Amino acid sequence: MEKKINERKSLLREAEKVAPKKPRNQNEEPDEFEDEEEVEYKPVKRARRTSAFSGILTKIIIILILIIIILGAGYYVFTKKMEPKKEVSLLIVQNQLSYCQELVTIKYRYSDILSIKKSLGFSKSYSIIKYSGIIRIGIPDLSLCDIEVTNEGKTLNIKLPDVEILGNDITSQEVFDESHSLFVPVSLDEAFAEIQRAKDNTLEELVDEGIMKEARENAKKVIQQIMMSAGFEEVIVV
To answer: For residues 141 and 97, what is the distance between their CA atoms, to the nearest angstrom?
Structure first.
């Protein structure tokens, strides 16, 4: 009898192993359907992953497009702001230069004594004249300067026109001594001609000594100081 009971229990155990598992709850299917569910579920997981990756890629593309738009707009605004700034800077330069259209960088004052003598036989005439003059050298018109504003309106480049002789004028003259003969008189025209010749010689000597170069260097310094006071950080004058 015991043997039969044991055999029966053994058969029950074997039957339990072969029999399908009980459902997990009232709504769940038995375990024999679990493999089918898993087979169908795996593609769903891959689809979700693909969809998530596509969503991230779309967001990245949108962000890149927005960045490009923002950078483009920023560049456009920046360039538009810079153009008026350069125009304002140029107006400042032109206004500053308009105050001194003729720039005199060297004034050279000179004086001399001129002796004019004439003789004919025993007749003699002479005049001793003291005269003073002034030579002005510089730039006749600063509006002819080439102006360029760079470095966001901080740097100014100016190319000056050539310096010129603006004037060589006699400021005073005085006769110290004179003697006139009716036969060989010294006329006023002769006196003026000699004074003109003397002042031209004075100017020629100064040019040979390099006064024109000195006048240009002085012009550079003057223009640089004027423009620096106008607010430019760097002024290059050539």
So the answer is: 9
215 and 137 in contact (C-beta within 8 Å)? yes
User: Can you tell me the distance from the alpha carbon of 226 to that of 229, in angstroms, rounded to the nearest whole number?
Assistant: 5
Q: Is 43 left (phi over 0), alpha (psi -120 to 50) or beta?
A: alpha
Segment (H or E) for 121: none
User: pLDDT tens digits, residue range 171-181?
Assistant: 998 887 777 77
Residue at 81: amino acid letter: K
| DSSP 8-class letter at 183 | S
Three-state DSSP class for residue 234: strand
CB burial string 19-34: b at 16+ within 10 A, e below: eeeeeeeeeeeeeeee
Look up the pTM and report it. Answer: 0.59
Task: Name the more confident of 131 and 11.
Answer: 131
Q: Is 71 exposed, middle or buried (0-12, 13-18, 19+ CB in 10 A)?
A: exposed
- Please choose, from the candidates 81, 159, 171, the residue with its C-alpha nearest in 3D space to the C-alpha of residue 133: 171
d(CA 119, CA 7): 174
- Pairwise CA distance, residues 188 & 122, whole Å: 22
Which tens digit of pLDDT belongs to each residue from 189-207? Answer: 888 899 999 999 999 999 9
Instruction: Kindly list the strands in the beta sheet with 103-120, ordered across the sheet, starting from the edge strand earlier in the chain.
Output: 103-120, 123-139, 164-179
> How far from chain centre, in Å, is Cα 220?
19
